[in-house]
């Protein structure tokens, strides 16, 4: 249905809802959808009217319902059920981070649009999720690409992380999760990256933008 050019937007939206229901059935169903070229499908959907809503929901999947900083004590019987309940949410988070990483490398426009949904802040929070290593890894890789292509974001990420963590992040984003401590996770969870970015943008007046100078100058 999603691949049919003659299909109505309403039909496409219902098809997406059905895919979400299937995906909620468990990991094997999510893997089945991914094996069916889900990422390519998302790229195609971005050509339709649902693009804005799709990107907003994709960024929203990075959000967690609870504080992800503390690593679960899986050796204690009481914590095991909570870990199992959180697993589907963490899997969705990791998948969203992976898809975002792919999309932003293929399109500057998509990257900029996702940035409007506090993408940097959410990726930093996801990097602090010590409950799920794949979420941390995928978020780190996606953010690393953004940092390497956007100097303005790089400075704010550095401020949010601190020099030590930022240097480790730039040197080895894929394996950074192995070095993130509880202190690092706390800093990532409470980051103000998007607030810093908005503050810096507000300091540039329309007149200054035309001259290529900041309001402070």
UniProtKB/TrEMBL annotation:
The protein's name is: Uncharacterized protein
Query: What superkingdom does the record give?
Result: Eukaryota
Q: Which organism is it from?
A: Callorhinchus milii
Range of residues in the leader sequence: none
What Pfam families is this protein classified in?
DUF5578
